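Database export, one record per block. Field names are fixed; values are copied verbatim from the stored entry.
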Amino acid sequence: MLKQMKVATSIAGFYALECGLDYLVTVRNMLPSRILQSLVNNSLSKEDEMLFARFANATWKAGQPFRGLNRITRETFTPFYYLSEPDIEKDIVQVKAAGSILLSSLNTRINL
């Protein structure tokens, strides 16, 4: 059960990655691979990086009730604008890690 909980909570980074990629592809008409590469290489604009952080925070919050109803507290559901810099950075790191895994997987498939 503990292992399943860890997987369920860490998958929020992948959800956030998908949401951010889909949004930027649709709104900016950019290639997903270009956005993904920029994210992983730290060359994404601060504005777009914060977009991914917002999605990460939202997807993480969405999963909290599944871990237990006692997780639904005001502190857990702090609005993004009131998060500390370390909390925002933690979300960005999680999305970048998911992006790195996805990019590596895509590159492996392309090179087969």
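Remark 1: The CA atoms of residues 19 and 55 lie 7 Å apart.
Remark 2: DSSP finds five helices and no strands in the chain.
End of record.
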